[in-house]
Design brief:
alpha+beta, UDP-n-acetylglucosamine1-carboxyvinyl-transferase, Chain, 2 domains, four-stranded mixed sheet, binds ligand EPZ
């Protein structure tokens, strides 16, 4: 177990390279199961979640080679269709194995994913999708046992849930449909850039997918898929996290390379609305940010893409905590995703959380304190607050950050922050 020691108040400046997207990599790595030919994927971030996915693929029988950000996977015939609880329990996103396993092997046994701190993580829409294609689903011993002895047959499926579209549910249906007989139409599809990146990867493998990025995706089933090469898109949430850091009081302005302006619109627009400076280069692959002269409070209502991402509201809350005025954050996708607020209050933030909404009243300054990371983006919010706080902050349970941020402490040090990763002997308070 490790913790991060952050000395607050050190000025930030300079340039940092953004890594490949964790949330694009995970389904793309799983999609390697769809062919027995090797696939080569570059710019896969070296984070725990992608490592877990590669371990699972290897334990299923795929051959996996990794050298820095490049991964080569080959999934021969005869790979297992069953992933164990031990393997899957570490990462909810392993649900995205369902689609490729069903397409390739017509059966799979996957543990029902547990919940997590950001809320219940149901899979009813994933099961609706695979049943619509003709599969039978049984729950046995905490596992989903899914079979399609007669193969999968294309149809039209509306994937809208009570909380709107589902990202990994859309991914799973796309991956299940690429080898199904006939045509599948996904209505109410998720439009996230990570879904589009997966569709592009599948089309490079020989799939016939149209409409990715819109609410209606059409997949014409094909006989087989072949190997390909692909570079994962930039991580828009890592980029957004660093943009927020660059707009906080301790920043003299920073530049991020390897971003994609088109994916960042709602994130950039909010920072500009709050009075900060956001300037992209001509082709939108690099962005410079710095704090505004007169920062303004703001409002966030999270929404599916292209709306404001739920994965960015915690990070913005850290900025709002030090912005004069009253800001409001409402998460319509994960209404319980406010674990960071109680920890920010330990640092002196003035936040009231009620019924899926956080009311943040800006304060003059935050003070360093021992705090507890709880989920990936909440942890990032604590790091941002610690950079701006006066004094030292200890962030326990660093493994939450390592799930989705590649070399975060190294990148922050490059920008002038004073952060140290040390063993956490006490491991933070009891769970
Ligand atoms: C993806 O999770 C991301 N993870 C999450 O990022 C992100 O927060 C989320 O999309 C929303 O944008 C990956 O891509 C690996 P959903 P996913 O299915 O696909 C409900 C991070 O920090 N729902 O789009 O699992 C669900 O409860 C992570 O990087 C159902 O009701 O999320 C939620 O309210 C955290 N039934 C809403 O839909 C289902 O079967 C959206 O969830 C599935 C989902």
């Amino acid at each position: 177990m490790e913790k991060l020691i952050v000395e607050g108040g050190y000025r930030l400046s300079g340039t940092v390279n953004i890594s490949g997207s964790k949330n694009a990599s995970l389904p793309i790595l799983a999609a390697a199961l769809l062919t027995d030919e090797p696939v080569r994927i570059t710019r896969v971030p070296d984070v725990s979640d992608t490592n877990y996915m590669l371990q699972i693929l290897s334990q299923l029988g795929a051959s996996v080679e990794r050298y820095s950000g490049t991964v080569r996977i080959a999934s021969p015939d005869g790979i297992s269709s069953s992933a164990s609880y031990e393997q899957v329990r570490k990462m909810r996103a392993s649900i995205c194995l369902l689609g490729p396993m069903m397409a390739r092997m017509k059966r799979c046994t996957l543990p029902l994913p547990g919940g997590c701190v950001i809320g219940d993580r149901p899979v009813d829409l994933h099961l609706r999708a695979i049943q619509a294609l003709g599969a039978r689903v049984r729950v046995k011993g905490g596992n989903m046992v899914i079979e399609a002895p007669n193969g999968l047959v294309g149809t039209t499926v509306d994937m809208r849930g009570d909380s709107g579209p589902t990202v990994l549910g859309t991914d799973n249906l796309m991956m299940a449909a690429v080898l199904a007989r006939g045509t599948t139409v996904i209505e109410s599809a998720a439009r996230e850039p990570e879904v589009v990146d997966l569709a592009n990867f599948l089309n490079k493998m020989g799939a016939r997918i149209e409409g990715a990025g819109s609410r209606t995706i059409t997949i014409h089933g094909v006989e087989r898929l072949h190997g390909c090469e692909h570079t994962v898109i930039p991580d828009r949430i890592e980029a957004g996290t660093f943009m927020v850091a660059g707009c906080m009081g301790m920043s003299d302005g920073i530049t991020l390379n390897r971003v994609c302006r088109e994916h960042m619109k709602s994130i950039s627009d909010l920072l500009v609305e709050c009075g900060h400076v956001v300037e992209y280069n001509e082709d939108g692959t690099s962005v410079s940010v710095k704090p505004g002269e007169r920062p303004r409070s703001g409002k966030i209502l999270t929404n599916p893409y292209p709306g404001y991402p739920t994965d960015m509201q915690a990070q913005m809350t850290a900025l709002f905590a030090l912005t004069p005025g009253i800001s409001v954050v409402k998460d319509t996708i994960f209404p319980q995703r406010f674990m960071h607020c109680s920890e920010l209050k330990r640092m002196g933030a003035n936040i009231k959380v009620d019924n899926g909404t956080a009311i943040i009243t800006g304060v003059e300054g935050l003070s360093g304190a021992p705090v507890m990371a709880s989920d990936l983006r909440a942890s990032a919010a604590l790091v941002l607050a610690a950079l701006a706080a006066e004094g030292t902050t200890e962030i326990h349970r660093l493994y939450h950050i390592d799930r989705g941020y590649e070399l975060l402490d190294d990148k922050l040090e490059l920008l002038g922050a004073r952060v140290r990763r040390v063993p956490d002997l006490e491991g933070g308070l009891v769970e």
